[in-house]
Design brief:
Length: 143
């Protein structure tokens, strides 16, 4: 059977530093690195705290709540997989635990007209492939 790129999503290849993030998502948990020196959350995964420059970072589960910092409705696919899914919403989420620490993500269960910056959102997990579950965000009930 020939490979059909349009039916296969682009799949990240996590390195050792980001592996915890994808393993937690597979278990429907959202984890971010937290500096063990100053307590600052760090995202995207990196080896050094961007606040105090400590290399003592460890994964920690966060609530999955936050606010919508920014969003966009996508009409041009970046990969053939997304062509049949147009338009779709993406956003940047300020995590509740530390505003200013932001997660780029897909937005689900919403239409563009209902979105506004600063609205409360909650993580949900979607199985993208049998081996990849990703965190997405949706507006919360109080939104």
């Amino acid at each position: 059977m020939p490979f059909d790129i349009a039916s296969s999503p682009p799949v990240p290849a996590p390195d050792e530093l980001a592996r915890f993030y994808f393993e937690a998502a597979a278990q429907h948990r959202l984890e971010l690195l937290r500096c063990q020196q100053c307590g600052h959350f760090v995202h995207y995964p990196r080896p050094v705290c961007n606040r105090c420059l400590s290399t003592s970072l460890a994964p920690e589960e966060v609530s999955g709540r936050g606010t919508l910092y920014s969003y966009s409705e996508i009409h041009q696919p970046s990969h053939p997989y997304f062509t049949a899914r147009l338009p779709y919403l993406i956003g940047v989420i300020d995590v509740e635990e530390e505003p200013g620490v932001r997660i780029p993500t897909g937005i689900v269960d919403a239409v563009r007209e209902d979105l506004r910056c600063g609205m409360p959102v909650q993580v949900v997990f979607h199985e993208v492939t049998p081996t990849l579950t990703l965190p997405y965000f949706r507006p919360t009930e109080e939104a």
